[in-house]
């Protein structure tokens, strides 16, 4: 089986005992290492009002990572478009593409990336912007097009630049939009795996050829924790389990060290909810990951694999990306 492109999703996660500056420095290290290993892209995700995530000013961080690397594509996974004016995003990403030509991706999502109260603050109480998402995506495309040169409202920089737009999804809703618009589709199976296979099936069945794509292109984002042994990887993954327990119980904290899981994890409702979020989480040694990821790729037919690796220890996180790269170097039988 041939190797498919391998990419990274980073949230500039803050670990216990550190600060946002440390988190951003770790993200730069991840970008530089994965670039050297041949990963295709690194994306940053927009989240707000979360003390464990330092990627809220996503466009700013994309510029910083781009300045510290040379060839890896850098983009958003994603920009939560209903939080912003399409013109502002066109100008921001037009500026990024002007500074780092041929390296910028624009992944778009419709979720707020935060809690309802913060979403209302971001959107100035206009929560109806979610329903404008398809219109806003088309408006962004218009701002990037040369056909907009006669309009009274234009994006500078931005107009005439080739900035790939992706539609992001964590349910089946955006699958229809990505298919209708003929855009590449990235699914957040790293935290919302339950509708992943249904969504990519909808996308493929409804896909319409566009000037962007002649056929569907699916990227799956999953959790991967790689280590020298299966046992070590399983132990390291307890940090991720703690993250999901915090999400389910609304007790979010910076990433905790691996180790004993909290008692609340054993409550059936918490245990079941967390484990459902872990359905697209892959842990193990190089050889184990090679087998289970080959099976996953063959079953889903994805075109690209993006990985999120929530690990507490800096060296363990960097090593995980290296082991994964070895595991993903498949050979023909």
What does it look like?
This protein has a single domain (6-229, 281-327), classed as Alpha-Beta Barrel (TIM Barrel), CATH 3.20.20.30. It is α/β, with parallel strands linked by helices and 333 residues long. The longest helix has 18 residues, at 20-37. The protein has an 8-stranded parallel β-barrel with strand order 1-2-3-4-5-6-7-9, surrounded by 9 helices. Helix 3 (86-99) packs across helix 5, helix 9 crosses helix 10 and helix 11 (286-300) crosses helix 12. Helix content is 42%, strand content 15%. Helix 1 (20-37) links the parallel strand 1 (6-10) and strand 2 (41-44). It contains 12 helices and 9 strands.
- Which structural class fits the helix and strand makeup? alpha/beta
Strand order of the largest sheet: 1-2-3-4-5-6-7-9
Task: Note the run of SSEs as H and E.
Answer: EHEHEHEHHEHEHEHHHEHEH
- The proportion of strand residues reads 5-15%
Number of helices: 12
The biggest beta sheet is recorded as: 8 strands, parallel, barrel
> Cα-atom Rg, whole angstroms?
19 Å
Query: Average pLDDT across residues?
Result: 94
Summarize the structure.
The chain is α/β, with parallel strands linked by helices and 333 residues long.
What is the fold's blueprint, element by element?
Layout: E1 6-10, H1 20-37, E2 41-44, H2 58-67, E3 73-80, H3 86-99, E4 104-109, H4 116-122, H5 133-144, E5 165-169, H6 173-181, E6 185-187, H7 196-206, E7 218-226, H8 230-236, H9 238-249, H10 268-277, E8 281-284, H11 286-300, E9 304-308, H12 314-327
Parallel strand pairs: 1-2, 1-9, 2-3, 3-4, 4-5, 5-6, 6-7, 7-8, 7-9
Helix pairs in contact: 1-12, 3-5, 6-7, 9-10, 11-12
């Amino acid at each position: 089986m041939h190797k498919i492109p391998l990419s990274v999703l980073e949230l500039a996660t803050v670990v216990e005992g550190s600060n946002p500056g440390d988190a951003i420095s770790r993200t730069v290290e991840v970008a530089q290492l994965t670039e050297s290993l041949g990963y295709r892209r690194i994306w940053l995700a927009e989240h707000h009002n979360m003390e464990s995530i330092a990627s809220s000013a996503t466009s700013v961080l994309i510029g910083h990572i781009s300045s510290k690397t040379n060839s890896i594509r850098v983009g958003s996974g994603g920009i939560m478009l209903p939080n912003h004016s399409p013109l502002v995003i066109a100008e921001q990403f037009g500026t990024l593409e002007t500074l780092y030509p041929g390296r910028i991706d624009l992944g778009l999502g419709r979720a707020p990336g935060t809690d309802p109260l913060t979403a209302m603050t971001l959107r100035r109480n206009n929560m109806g912007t979610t329903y404008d998402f398809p219109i806003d995506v088309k408006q962004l495309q218009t701002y990037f097009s040369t056909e907009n040169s006669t309009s009274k409202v234009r994006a500078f920089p931005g107009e005439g630049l080739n900035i790939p737009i992706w539609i992001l999804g964590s349910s089946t809703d955006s699958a229809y939009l990505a298919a209708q618009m003929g855009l590449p589709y990235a699914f957040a199976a790293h935290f919302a795996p339950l509708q992943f296979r249904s969504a990519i099936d909808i996308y493929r069945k409804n896909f319409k050829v566009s000037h962007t794509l002649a056929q569907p292109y699916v990227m799956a984002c999953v959790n991967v924790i790689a280590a020298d042994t299966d046992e070590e990887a399983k132990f390291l993954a307890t940090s991720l389990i703690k993250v999901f327990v915090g999400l389910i119980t609304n007790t979010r904290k910076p990433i905790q060290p691996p180790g004993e899981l909290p008692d609340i994890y054993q409550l059936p409702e918490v245990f079941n909810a967390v484990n459902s979020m872990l359905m697209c989480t892959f842990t193990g040694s190089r050889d184990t990951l090679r087998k289970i990821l080959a099976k996953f790729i063959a079953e889903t037919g994805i075109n690209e694999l993006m990985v999120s690796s929530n690990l507490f220890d800096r060296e363990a996180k960097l090593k995980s990306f290296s082991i994964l790269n070895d595991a993903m170097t498949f050979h023909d039988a």
